[in-house]
Amino acid sequence: MILRERQRTSTAVIWLILLTAPYWINWVGGYTPLGSRVLVLALAAMSLNFLLGFTGVLSFGHAAFFGLGAYGVGMTIKYLIPSTPLGVLVGMLAALAAAMVIGALIVRLRGVYFAMVTIAFGQVFYFVAFRWNSVTGGDDGLSGWRRIPLDFGFARLDILGDDKAFYYFVLLCFAIATALMGLLLRSPFGRTLLAIRENERRARFLGVPVDRHIWLSFVVSCLFVALAGALFALLNNFADPRTLRWDQSGDFVIMAVLGGMRSFWGPLIGASIFVVLQDYVSSMTENWMSFIGLFFVLVVLFFPRGILGMLARRAVS
Amino acid sequence: MTQLLLFNLFNGVITGAFYALMALGLSLILNLSGVINFAHGGFLALGAYLAYSLMPAIGFWGGLLVAPLLTALLGIVLEQTLIRRLYGRDPLYGLLLTFGLAFVFEDVTRSIWGAQSLPYQIPGWLASPLSTQFFFLTGYRVFMVVLVLVAVTGLFLILTQTRLGIRIRAGTLDLETVSVLGVNVRILRTLNFALGIYLAGLAGVLAAGMLGLQPTIGLSLIMPSFVAIIVGGLGSLPGTLVGGLLIGIASGMTTVFFPAATEAVMYVMMALVLLLRPRGLLGEHGRLH
Lengths: 317, 289
Description:
The complex is a heterodimer of chains A (317) and B (289). With 317 residues, chain A is an all-alpha fold. Chain A has a domain at 37-243. Chain A has 14 helices and two strands; from the N terminus they run ααααααββαααααααα. Chain A has helices spanning 2-24, 32-52, 63-80, 84-106, 111-131, 133-136, 163-186, 188-198, 200-205, 210-236, 246-259, 266-284, 288-302, 306-316, and strands spanning 150-151, 156-157. In chain A, helix 2 (32-52) packs across helix 12 (266-284) and helix 7 (163-186) packs antiparallel against helix 10 (210-236). The two termini of chain A are 18 Å apart. Chain B has a domain at 21-217. Chain B has helices spanning 2-33, 40-81, 91-113, 124-127, 139-161, 163-173, 175-180, 185-211, 219-232, 237-257, 264-276. The model of chain B has no long low-confidence stretch (mean pLDDT 85). Chain B is globular and about 60 Å long. Chain B is mainly alpha-helical and 289 residues long. Chain A binds chain B through residues 52, 58, 60, 105-106, 108-113, 115-117, 119-121, 123-124, 127-128, 131-132, 246-247, 250, 253-254, 257, 287, 289-290, 292-297, 299-301, 304, and chain B through 30, 34, 36, 82, 85-86, 89-93, 95-97, 99-108, 111, 223, 226-227, 229-230, 234, 260, 263-264, 267, 270-271, 274-275, 278, 288-289.
């Protein structure tokens, strides 16, 4: 009872912080687009964690779907229709299709094997974006397009010129996606995923079609990562081939682990720390790669359960 | 046309030999310890740069002998301090830690030796073509294939003929029983790790002679090694060797007909293998999990 109440309070606090962020972030040395970046990457890490933390399947190739979302929205706006929502939709559908096919290929694999295959498949998309110069812009990325202000017919939201408006647009997408994931996790489907995570063999004996559940979880997770990728491209008005590469996948995993894989909001905390740290370190030194690398090592050695995992453990004991 | 085909076929064999050398090291470590060593490419680059720096003092042949050994030594140090803590844990942590190490490696090589690519001097008689008709058969390329052949033969001899090798293979199947039989598993894992890193260092020195030196040299070779392991079958060293050669030759031949797909073709092969034979070409049954 007390636990549930505490959970409700912390959820309320999180939403309060997110809703008011644009009004105090400048005071603490940040800027509104940094807040948007935290939200976008947190959404990506939370989507990954749907698979990683709540199904127990390790994907190291989610950057591919993040990038598909990014290029989907960029290419739609640049070549097809100048509409932000349609672009996001195209990006998500492209990732959905790719996830359904790749998911079907790999759903029987587990553990290390699953991780290796997802890394390798992710690279395919990177090479396509990197090599197909005429369409994707190759190494330079896809530029020459901008996000289009939202037009509802009766009102207009200028997400292009107004950073705060864009932040709230991202927050709305974030809220819808996390609410959907939260609902899914509370449903019988989500409970079954937890059962698979805890003991796959037992779940199989109980008649759960394990492979189909893992496939579905993979597809859902990739779909929301693609939404995050589309928002990321909109944030930068640019799609970068490096968002498709394996080091981006690694960033998502470390955000989830740092915050706490077993908790729903953990990746949000992990992403906030990671983004702020990266922003700070890369402005301070040229050797930021060493810092990020050492950061990975330190997290694995000292925070394997993540920050929320450690807090929860302390609360129990 | 025959010239072109032969040229690319031979190129493919060389590339494949590289992939195989690197993938064999990765596979050794993965099979015994369950750690995917993302930093393998970093060790490869380090081997190459060490050989470069040692060259003025001990020459090409000395570098070829010493640099991989030094790399393996550093491998032992890192295994003792960091990698050891990963054994028996969720493979997630191994991936993340070695991933971080790969970053550190790349950054450190860049700050010591610079970001621009450096030339690597090979002995003059190795650099000249062997035949006027088949211009592509330079001595160095033939030498590389021979050396990889020697290294792979040596590895398989160690694994089948020496006590250490037999213990490594037994540990791959059932480490607990090996431990109960009185083998010091800690030392076994360390030596096995060093052996894998030695192969990476050797591949690095050879790669330096062909591609020159860049801090990113290891990164560009690690993904194909993953694919080689998957195509060949997890848990099978001969499979890894076959997988490496196959994808090397496949990308070599694709260069002739469809250059843009040179990198992509190996991933298509991987998809096909996963579709038709998920455990890989020579993978043993039941090692999927």
